[in-house]
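Bit of a strange request maybe. I'm writing a small parser for structure token strings and I need a real example to test against, not something I typed by hand. Could someone generate the tokens for this chain?
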Amino acid sequence: MRRSPRRALAIAVLWAVSFAAPAPVAAELVPIQLTSNELIDIKPDISGGAVVFVRYVPGYQVFRWLGGVTTAITTQAVGASDPRVSGSNVVWSEERYDGSNDTEIYFFDGTTITRVTNNSVYDYTPDVSGNRVVWVRSPSGSDREIYLWDGTTTVNLSNNATDDVSPAIDGVNVVWSSGDGNDTEILFWNGSTITAITDDETKDANPAISGSNVAWECRGGGTLGEICAFVDGQLYQITDDSQRDQNPDIFGSRVVWQCHDGTAFQLCSWDGTSTTQLTSTPHHKFGPRLTATAVTWGASVDGLPEIFLATLPGTPPPPATVPALPGWTLAVLAALLAAGGLASRTRGSSGRRFSP
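Reply from user aminoacidic:
Good idea to test on real output. This should exercise your parser:
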């Protein structure tokens, strides 16, 4: 990837003034357990009051929980995975067992299921915002690309010779992780132009997006994962500890992720200023997903994965305040990272995989 000295310098300045890694403070969530059975329930996502997830019944099917009622969206799938929801729209990937040995993308608009892809290559880890869908396509097994479907037309967004994975979408904005031959960086597409949010020598991966704000897993100089974010024009390293931090999601300027307290994976949250540990019970939590007021996640209970939902403490925080910086720094960022105003996020996040 092309690296700009001016851009690297601007990032270095911002990183220096915005390092944030306070110790977590417990503020226990009061969860609702959405599933309680002898089945496998994994990979939740949330939009409004709807939570979608995968259940093994047997065969992996997509289910939706809404208002206390759980219904199956798919009935024939045997390998459904990675569901994402935006309003009444749901997408997922589905493994085919018809001799073609590949996966395809499906879109549900609340009434009808549409098959978005139909080919002999792997299409997987989709995300959805309104009627726009992004996913990874692996035509050769090595050079993976990011594709976008707008309800009518499919286009290759990344279209390069490097590996592009983990797309997330919100409105017209799309973010993903891309290999540059040395490591992986976070790329941002604003509907017309691709910009590198990161430009360093460490692994940046697994991004999530809300408007033009982005959170992702970063190395931060260590070997274990940390959480970084780009919020309102400002770069933050949110965590810096000896435990692994992973699977972030972002809504507005709030970030949640999977943190480890030395005993089990918990949920942590950052509101632009401070970090809070949201859970403490001694079983692993996985794959948190956000709205403005709620979070859903998976957790292993008595050896089986279940789905949980909780209201977030307090109200959504206001946008983070950008500290005063030299005018030349802001000018460089404005030129390099212009992505328009914040879009209203109905649902956008990364194509992350959930492990029970």
